[in-house]
């Protein structure tokens, strides 16, 4: 059965997705001005709230048939924006985050360009695939640990960052293969 799609732009799921942009800016402000452990915990809490709104908006959209074409774009853009802001801010404390941030920008730029090519070629937006969701979960977990444990030993932080980068490379390769096959099929 085909999902019902909402033509509305202002829906609860879309509002929640837009709210995540506000939370990302709020996080950056709180984190970059944090001087105490409590302030770092507040920054981590903002990301938890952002993650919860991400889960809730999808459930509401599916349950109440509020899935929209705008929402299918807005939701992942809000995710990527939040992830990018958090990774960028974490470079301040964890220099290895710079490598993860660069990989993140390369992967997401490639996916945006190839995703548009696939959309133009096939007329379809399949959304996130399992390996993309895995990448998102691992990235959020790593970012959360780096935020929630302000005094995390640097060797553990580096290990988490490298683990996250490995999953990101895996996801990048899988999406590259998927996009290649989709475009090859529709030539």
Describe it.
The radius of gyration is 17 Å and the shape is globular. Helix content is 79%, strand content 0%. The chain is built from six helices and no strands. The protein has a single domain, classed as Four Helix Bundle (Hemerythrin (Met), subunit A) (Up-down Bundle).
What does the secondary structure layout of this molecule look like, with pairings?
Blueprint: H1 12-32, H2 37-63, H3 69-90, H4 97-122, H5 130-148, H6 154-185
Helix pairs in contact: 1-2, 1-3, 2-5, 3-4, 3-5, 4-6, 5-6
Question: What is the β-strand count?
Answer: 0
Structural class: mainly alpha
Distance between the termini: 28 Å
Number of helices: 6
Main sheet overview: none
Give the % helix.
Answer: over 70%
* Assigned CATH class: Mainly Alpha
Characteristics of this structure?
6 helices, mainly alpha, Four Helix Bundle (Hemerythrin (Met), subunit A), single chain, 187 residues
What would you say about this model in short?
The protein has helices spanning 12-32, 37-63, 69-90, 97-122, 130-148, 154-185. The chain has 187 residues and is mainly α. It has a single domain, classed as Up-down Bundle (Four Helix Bundle (Hemerythrin (Met), subunit A)), CATH 1.20.120.1760.
């Amino acid at each position: 059965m085909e999902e019902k799609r909402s033509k509305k732009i202002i829906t609860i799921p879309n509002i929640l997705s837009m709210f995540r942009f506000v939370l990302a800016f709020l996080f950056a402000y709180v984190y970059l001005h944090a001087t105490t452990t409590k302030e770092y915990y507040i920054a981590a809490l903002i990301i938890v709230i952002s993650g919860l709104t991400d889960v809730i908006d999808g459930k509401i959209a599916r349950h109440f048939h509020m899935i929209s074409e705008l929402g299918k774009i807005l939701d992942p853009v809000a995710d990527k924006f939040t992830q990018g802001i958090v990774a960028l801010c974490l470079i301040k404390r964890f220099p290895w985050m710079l490598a993860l941030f660069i990989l993140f920008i390369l992967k997401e730029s490639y996916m945006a360009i190839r995703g548009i090519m696939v959309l133009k070629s096939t007329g379809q937006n399949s959304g996130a695939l399992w390996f993309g969701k895995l990448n998102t979960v691992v990235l959020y977990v790593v970012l959360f640990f780096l935020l929630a444990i302000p005094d995390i030993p640097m060797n553990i932080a580096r290990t988490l960052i490298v683990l996250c980068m490995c999953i990101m490379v895996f996801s990048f390769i899988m999406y590259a293969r998927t996009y290649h096959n989709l475009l090859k099929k529709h030539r």
